[in-house]
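Researcher: Please translate sequence to C-alpha cells.
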Amino acid sequence: MAKRGFQRWAAKFPFTRNIVRSEGEAMFDLVAGFCHSQILQAFVRLGLPDLLLKNEMTAAALADALDFPEDRLQVLLSGCVAIGLLKLRKSGRYALTRRSAALAGVPGLAGMIDHHEILYLDLADPVAFFRGEVETELAEFWPYVFGAKGATDPVAIAQYSKLMADSQVLVAEDTLAAVDFKGSHQMMDVGGGSGAFLTAVGQAYPELPLMLFDLPAVVPSAKERLEEAGILHRTEIIAGSFRDEGLPRGADLISLVRILYDHSDQTVTSLLADIYEALPPGGRIVISEPMTGGDTPSRAGDAYFAIYCMAMRTGRARSAAQISALLEAAGFTQIDTPRVRRPFITSVVTGVK
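Model: Translation complete:
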C-alpha cells in the first residue's frame, strides 16, 4: 500500500479507485482535523449556534451582529458548511444543520468545546506530551483534581460546578436508562458535586432517600440545586473527602459518576475498598463514566478521554473490563456492564456486595 506505483494503479483500476478515494479523503480529514477543531471552537465562541437558532442570517448580517470583518467571517462560515455545522440557503442565508442544532441544545457541550483551548496548549508538542515531558495546564482548570486543597477559589469552583452539572444531564439520562434503582432503601452519590446526578435520580425515584458526599466547597451549591428541585428535604448532604476520611454508612446503593477516571489506580483501589466496607450485604455500586474500548479502542474513549485524562495528570481512562477487575478485587460480585444508549457519553459498570 505504501508503494507509489501501486497507489497510481489502484487509483485508476475500476474495482479499487473508489477505495483509494475514500481512504484518501479519510487521510486528509486526519491531516486537517486540527483546523476543523478550530473552526468548531470559533463557531461556539462567537455564539453562532445561538444566533442562528433564532434566525437564519446572511454573512453580512452576521458580520454586523458580531462586529467581525465580513471577508474573514466568510471563510469561517464556508468552513462550517464544509464540516457539517452550517448549510447555505439559496437566499444567501446561513442556517444550522441538525448536528449544530443539537450542539446548541446539549447542556454543557459548548462550554466543553470552549475550554479546549487549554488542552490545545498542552498538546502543542504532542510527542513531548505523550512522553510525559509537559507540565500540563488542564489540571489547573479543574479545582478538585488535587483534592480539597485545590477547591479554594470560589470563581473556579463556580465555573467547574456549572460545567460539570450541565454536562451531567446526558450522563444521568443514560445511566438511569441502563440501571434500575428500584429496591434500594437509600442511595449515596460519592463525589456528587452540586447534585446534578442526584437531582436526576431523585426526580426519577420520588420515594428514594438520598445522600450526597463531597468536599465542603460544593455544599452550598448542592443545597441550592436540591432545594430548587424539591428534594432537599429527603437528601442528607455530608461534607468530606473520600481520600482523607471514611465514607458515611447507611446507603445500600452507592454511585460514582465520572469519579474514577480522575484518580490513580491506588486511589481507586482504596475508594472501592471503602465503598465495599460501607455497603451492607447485597448493597450495590454503580459506576458511570466515559470508558476506553479496551481490546477494541474507540474514538471517544481512546482518542479523546484517554488523552484528556492524561492531561489532567491524576487519573486515567479505563475500560469496562479494567473497572470490572478492580471491582472484583475489592470483593464485589455479580459484576455487570449494562448496555448504554451512547457509549461516547458514558458507560456503566455495576456490582453487588
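Researcher: Any highlights?
Model: Residues 146-152 have pLDDT under 50 and may be disordered.
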